[in-house]
Amino acid sequence: MEPYEYRQLQIDNFTPQIIQLVSTCTQLLKYPTDVESLTEDRIDDIHRNRFYVNDTLGDCCRLLGGDLVLKNVGTILQMEVTRVTSLGNQGLMEWHTIEACFKALISTSRYIPNDESAVLPFVMGLIPTLPTSVSYLRNTANFMVGAFAQWLNQHPEQLHPILPYLAQGLSETKSASSAAIAIKQLCECCSAQFSLGDSVLQLYDGIVSAQIHQSNQGPPALDLKDELQVLEGACKAVSRQLHEMAKNQQNVSNSEYISRIVEPIGSRLVQYSSTQHTQVIAEVERLTVVIRHLHVPNGRHQFLIDLMTQCWPYLENISVQHTDFRVAENLCRLHKHCLRNCGAAAYAPLLEKLCCHLVKAYTHSRQSPYLYAASIVIAEYGKGASDTIAHQLYCMLEEMGQVSFRMLTPMDQFKNHPDVVEELFFLAGRMVQFCPDVFVSSTTFDSFVQCATIGMVQPHKDANRGTMSFLDKVLDYGIAMQSSPRNGGNASAFENFENVLSREGKLISTNLMLSLMGELPYYWVSPTSSSGSISGLLFKLFKLCPALLFGWITLPLARISETEKALLMTGFRSDVGRADFFGICDRFVEVCSRSQKMGVGGI
Q: How far apart are CA 523 and CA 105, in angstroms?
């Protein structure tokens, strides 16, 4: 018998038991009757158990088919609705089984065809009649609407009564998040034949008006993250409508839909750019959602460039007026998404302005997100960059480096600004990786390497990671240049690299050895997902300049026993591969640590 035939035979034999399992799982999904009074830890346990039960129902769908599971859960639901309805007003408290059935139905959503007509019409018709005061029931109903968004797109007559139910759910604190997610999922699945663009835009306009009015009196009625879910859905629905308009040869560049989304954000940026901190963050996040999810056909790149050009003066003003971390983080996230959605070539007209903006903003605020944004710029433009662009990127790095070095003096400041140290050296590492010649040949490179030798011994994981990653990129550059022909600019750069390494190599190597021996902090002995481990740097130093390395580590090796020294030296052989070397370093660390704990050895 073929494996598939045998599998089907076994499924047929056990179908009654699997159907019984479906009924059991539906019962296990029920919340306790006293769920409202349970502690948060207990509710977390219930949610975890429900997740595993739902997973089991998904397995049942894979065995029996989603339609059979749907039919059985639907039968349980219809019987329960009939029972609860017969109780009259007392039935309002009997929601637990209905909610469990909804939760079970969510597990079947991936396996149900869009033409299903036996169960889902009854289920979707039930939703608008549910009591609105039970948040657990309402949340699960919202999630179910989102799970069956594809089905609802094919049955718009079922969706019309549900939309007001979701909109009203946004005003309820406990159900707002699930309602916002459901609205977004519906917008993602809506087709040209049934577009939600107008409806959701009208809903979103009302949300923002209420938010702005409420912000003058107290906390906003709807959390910003939930509002952004609705805006994302509106952008996706409008994008689909714009593409349909473009197919019909209609002009979309001046579309009313675009204006309704973009113009309010622009006007509020003008109003709030130098005043209210909370509103500034909200408007920047709204603008980011638009840039990420509003797709204008036949000219999206130009739309984004024009949008950013119009907003640029206000964004610059925000970066100067609001110098805290959260504003910096949101501004840089906006620039990152705009750059990546445009592409480097289309964004090129704004490159110089962006570099100047990041330097100016970082000088005012000293916040690390601007360093991160600068590293994104180098990654996008550095590879194969022309001399003009490479020099432009280097000038940005140089100015940011000067500001950072002033801030990190004296050395204690390394511990006070670990995020700056990490991002500064990730930025410098990107420059070595993508535009090495202009950077390595400069005096600024010397300053970065000197600073890295200080940062690599700081007792902070993030600061250590940044400096070690930078040094790793520097050694990669040296190894690559050893086997490459050198002329012109790269010959000058490699000469400077050798000079810097001869001056700083001894301290770097000593620090690496002391970290392996346990006398300095260490976090990554062997490479993980990121570069910049102790053993990785030692291995590259050995490949780059073995004779110099042996001279540099003589002094620290004199502080350990001959046994420990012999163990480490077995790794410094030309026939030892990378993985074997890392294993030797790991054993060396274990031996040194054991010797320290036992009070023996040469340390």
A: 47
